[in-house]
Amino acid sequence: MTDTGIPRPRSGSVLLSVRQLKVQHRLRPRLPFAPPVLLRAVDEINFDLRAGETLGVVGESGSGKSTLARALLGVQPVAAGSIRYDGQELVGRDARGWRRLRREIQMVFQDPQGSLDPRMRIREIVAEPLEFLCPEIAPSARAGRAADMLACVGLGPELLDRYPAELSGGQCQRVGLARALVVKPRLLICDEAVSALDVVVQAEILQLLRALQAQTGMALLFITHDLGVVRRLCDRVLVMYFGRTMEHGEVRTVLTHPRHPYTKALLASLPGTGATERATFLRGGEAPDVTVPLTGCLFTARCPMADEQCPRRVPHTHRLRDGTAVACHYVSDSWAPPIRAA
Ligand SMILES: Nc1ncnc2c1ncn2[C@@H]1O[C@H](COP(=O)(O)OP(=O)(O)OP(=O)(O)O)[C@@H](O)[C@H]1O
Ligand code: SF4
Ligand SMILES: [Mg+2]
C-alpha cells in the first residue's frame, strides 16, 4: 500500500478504515428559487481503527465530529469516499445490509435525553436492543442482562422503572451507554458520552470502557471536547477543524508536542493558560465559510503563523517521522517545543 500520510494503528487487524470521506449538509437557500447551498461538514477525512484501540476525535463546536459519527453509523448520507468495516464497504449499503451490522456497531449519541424514547421505562430502553439484535438471548434473560449492564455503568435497580424525563442528564448518558454496550459491540462510537458526568463517575466509566476493551477487543471512536479524557482514554487522536483533519497521531505525541497551530491553540485554550499566552496561539479571526470552494488553509484567519501563501494553497497532509500526520505548509520534522500536557 502507498503511504497515505495516515498514522498507522499500532498493531492488530484494522476494523474500520475511512478514506477520503466527505459529508455535506444541504442548507436552505436564503432566497426563494435559489439553488441549495452545500456545507462541507466532513471533508476528506482518513483514518484507520483497529480492534482494541481507541481513537479520540477532537475539535471545536461545528467542526463536524457528530456528522462524522452519524456517517460511520450509516444514518447520514455520504457524498464521497469509503468506510470499510471488517473488510466490507459501508457506503451505499441498504437497510437490509446494515441489519446484521447493527449489533456490531453501536453509538452513544451526544444528546442523552433526546436519544432515549420518552415513553419507555429504563429497563425497556436497555433491554430493547437485545430483543431486536440478539435473538439467541431468551426473553426471560433479557431483563437480567439489562439490569446487569445498568449496574456496570453505576445505575442502581431503583431507576429501572423510571422514564428518561425522571433522570438527570448524567444518568441518561449512562443509560445510553448501557443500551449501546448491552449487545457487546465490536465498534463503539461515543459522541460526548461522558460530558455530563461528574469527575468521579466519568473516571469510573472510562475505567469500565478500558476493561471492556481488554476483555472483548472492542474498538472505540471517542468524540470529546475534553483533552484530559483524550489523554486518559485514547491511543491516537484526530484533530478536526471545520471538517478537515489538522493533525492526527499518537496521543502522547500530539498532546505533548503539538505541531499544527490549531492543535497548539486547542491546548492553549485549556483552563489555566493565561490570556496573553493564549493570544500567541490564536488570532481573533472569523470561522471559515465551508460553503464556498476551498482555496487555501481553513485556519488562515485565526492562525498566528499564517502568511500570504496560506489562503492561496490548500495544505497537503504529510506524515512526520514519528508517524504524526499534519496539514500545514510550515510544519517540518523538527520537534516543536511542548506547551503543556492536557
Ligand atoms: N442536519 C443538518 N443540516 C444542516 N447543517 C447541519 C446539520 N447538522 C449539522 N450541520 C452543520 O454541520 C456542521 C458540523 O456539525 P456537527 O454537529 O457535526 O459538529 P460538531 O463538531 O459535532 O459540533 P459540537 O461540538 O457542537 O457537537 C455545523 O456547521 C452544523 O451547523
Ligand atoms: S497552512 Fe498557514 S494558516 Fe494553515 S495552519 Fe499552517 S501556517 Fe497556519
Ligand atoms: Mg456534535
Structure keywords:
single chain; 342 residues; Rossmann fold; four-stranded antiparallel sheet; 12 strands; globular; binds adenosine-5'-triphosphate; binds iron/sulfur cluster; binds magnesium ion
In a nutshell, what does this entry contain?
The protein has 342 residues and is of the alpha/beta class.
Q: Could you describe the 3D structure shown?
A:
The protein is of the alpha/beta class and 342 residues long. It has a domain at 14-97 and 187-197 and 225-326: P-loop containing nucleotide triphosphate hydrolases (Rossmann fold). The protein is 28% helix and 21% strand. It contains ten helices and twelve strands. The chain has helices at 65-72, 95-99, 122-133, 139-152, 169-181, 199-216, 227-233, 251-256, 261-268, 275-279, and strands at residues 14-27, 37-50, 54-58, 80-85, 88-89, 105-108, 187-191, 219-223, 236-241, 244-250, 318-319, 325-326. Strands 6-7-8-3-9-10-12-11 form an eight-stranded mixed sheet, sandwiched between helices. Strands 2-1-4-5 form a four-stranded antiparallel sheet, covered by helices on one side. A hairpin with a 2-residue loop joins strand 4 (80-85) and strand 5. The longest helix is centred in the middle third of the chain and has 18 residues, at 199-216. The mean pLDDT is 91.
